[in-house]
User: Which sequence fits this backbone?
């Protein structure tokens, strides 16, 4: 069970705003609900910013009450909507955002998102002194300083469910399937899905495989009588790269089928795990802010909620545990 810190209240904040930013992730609604209801229970006014930093710049800020977040814990997506806001890369734009929040009487901002969103929050706080805190929400689980991110568990379960279905048809037709999962620069989804789905081969951005190595894993299975194979591949820089690998395999005499799971992994009902994680991190973000912590992200380390400075979060790359990949390779032989 997750351990939550009991923190003394040192700040006299009256109003806190919450937003979702970057790619949506199942469980973000549970985090919005937790921030709102925990904040209200402490006498705070809670505001929701619509559409991330873009909405903030347009003044899309509305007060939330307990009913605003009723019946959302089980819903995927984000009721606050989200966006990737390129203008926020500019210092003058971040200054304007802080001014808008201050004019609204808001004392601090909670950002639910990934490392791009945290970079924006970190720079805004450094440049303007406006307090910000992050809650890790991304299906990729690629955020440094936390072992877990909201949405990862749901995405992995969605992809494993798809692989179970693909395996039925793969084995019926004696086929090789290339299943492309999300993960722009990290292979957390691919590795966990590959292990949980019993894939013969896992291809991640952290450890490139040559076409000869991929063929070897297929042949290894064939030698012991396997007639079908599942290769799980992280999408990497852009979706669709699995078609290139399929073409290379075709040149070597295989007839692979490609299945790109894409955004199906981003939607859907959040798992119990993600709802709990989001609820605990949402409440903790409020607690840390009131205890005077900001310019940081709440995360999980060794089952405990911790506050990790944004500087560390946005400048460190989270490594994929090498032993996980080893386990994957061993189990697929
Ligand atoms: O960051 C989460 C993520 O789902 C990545 O895995 C993926 O590469 C990217 O977002 C897709 O973003 P978009 O929905 O903007 O195309």
Assistant:
């Amino acid at each position: 069970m997750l351990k939550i810190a009991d923190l003394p209240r040192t700040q006299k904040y009256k109003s806190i705003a919450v937003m979702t930013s970057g790619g949506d992730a199942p469980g973000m609604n549970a985090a919005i609900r937790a921030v709102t209801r925990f904040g209200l229970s402490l006498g705070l006014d809670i505001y929701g910013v619509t559409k991330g930093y873009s909405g903030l710049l347009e003044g899309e800020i509305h007060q939330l009450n307990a009913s605003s977040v009723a019946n959302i814990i089980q819903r995927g997506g984000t009721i606050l909507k989200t966006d990737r806001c390129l203008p926020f890369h500019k210092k003058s734009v971040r200054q304007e955002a802080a001014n808008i929040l201050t004019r609204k009487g808001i004392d601090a901002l909670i950002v639910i998102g990934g490392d791009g969103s945290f970079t924006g929050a970190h720079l805004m706080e450094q440049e303007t002194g406006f307090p910000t805190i992050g809650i890790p929400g991304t299906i990729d689980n690629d955020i440094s300083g936390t072992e877990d991110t909201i949405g990862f568990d749901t995405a992995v379960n969605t992809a494993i469910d798809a692989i179970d279905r693909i395996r039925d048809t793969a084995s019926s037709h004696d086929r090789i399937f290339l299943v492309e999962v999300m993960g722009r620069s990290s292979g957390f989804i691919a590795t966990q899905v590959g292990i949980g789905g019993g894939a013969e081969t896992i291809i991640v951005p952290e450890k490139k495989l040559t076409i000869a190595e991929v063929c070897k894993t297929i042949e290894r299975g064939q030698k012991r009588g396997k007639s079908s194979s599942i290769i799980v591949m992280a999408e990497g820089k852009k979706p669709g790269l699995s078609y290139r690998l399929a073409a290379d395999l075709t040149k070597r005499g295989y007839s692979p089928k490609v299945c790109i799971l894409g955004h199906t992994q981003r939607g859907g009902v959040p798992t119990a795990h993600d709802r709990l994680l989001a609820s605990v991190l949402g409440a903790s973000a409020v607690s840390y802010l009131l205890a005077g912590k900001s310019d940081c992200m709440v995360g999980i380390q060794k089952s405990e909620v911790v506050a990790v400075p944004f500087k560390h979060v946005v400048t460190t790359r989270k490594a994929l545990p090498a032993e996980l990949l080893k386990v994957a390779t061993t189990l697929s032989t």
